[in-house]
Model the fold of this input.
Amino acid sequence: MPFLRQRTTTFHSRTPIGILLLFHLFNHAIATFASSSQEFLAPPPADITRICPLPVCKTCPTARQIHAPGVGFALEMGYGYDSYSSVSGITRSSLRLTCPDRNSTAAIRFHNHTYHATAHVEGEPAFLTLMQRLATGPQHRVPHDIPSNWDKLRYLKRRTQRLLNRAIGRPATPETAILASMVAKLKTQIEHSLGEKVTTAVLSSPDRICLTEEEVSDVLDYLKIKNLMSIPDDLEDLYATSAAFAGYGFGLCRQYTDPYACEREEQRFPPQRLLHIDFTIHSLSGTIKSLNSARNGFADKTFISIDLGLGKLETSPEEEMYWTAVRDWIRLLVQSYKPRITQLMLTGSAAGDGRFREAVRDALYDLVSTTALDGLHPGNTDVGAHDAERTAEDFLYATAKGAAEFAKRRQEGPVRCAESEACKRVRKGIE
Done:
């Protein structure tokens, strides 16, 4: 085997000493980590399939962390009802709305598992313009998604200016200022309800827009609010579908203060291929996502049409043409996805409209599982017929309630660590 010996010798002779040293240090670190005592690691139970054990939490929870309410903000597509009326002459009665449209909503999740969801803001034209631009522009606005080197250099220049603006207390970007203005209005309403300052929160955005962690942190940092989603976890960014899924009570473990018990619960959740349709005065959007837990990540398929909001009925030549277009968009989205949809979820201020629900039934009757459409039949209380009993407020606030649920769980903790027995006793004493 002289050839193999030559190749082996050549490899060693050309390998830099620094690389060999690096490998030696790496192996030593792995060996040291593997021999760590329980003081540093919390091994998972035998029935949990986890490659790496979680570290033990460095600190125990405080009474404030455990009892503090979670605050969730939801930025949405759509135009505020009053603002839209002043521009287009659309009236509430002509659109047969059960609830005025809102750009953004907020909710509070209290420690006793109740919600307070009354904060809503009617956006200004600058916000609508920005959301439309983000909805029709690149979905991922991070360096590795930028095609050309020149555009990457421009990105680095903007990022440098962004960091400078943050350092001197200004909005990181013009977009930050617009979004922060909306969130600030929601924050004021929530603070009025709570009687105290909002210092931590979670912010969700539509799946098609996908605000990045940096963009969300720019907004919340400017408002002196800690972004709870910036803490590393299985889900790093929260978008509307996962938030609404949680807001309706789906995909949530009960024992969230015990990460291993939570994983055990989530492993038993049935997998779903979820179709989420959001319908407001100003937009129709659809998202398909494969998930079994609300903590599952990115969408498989998504679209937003700013031409098919309910407000377009005022300018549509014929009502039937409008509803045909709505059906076609929904049907096209589902047909582009090969697996069969198993669950349907509706949100948005116009989601309760009877004509819309009929259009959804017509679009999906032969494309999805029969149980997925159960919720579109009024009075149906069978298992899976969740949307049949939803109210206009449920459709409007589901996303914000889900964001608040994530906020509560993340600030109460633990996140990416397991509590020691001493910390568990501290928690039990506080609760």
User: Anything to note?
Assistant: The first strand starts at residue 41 and ends at 42.
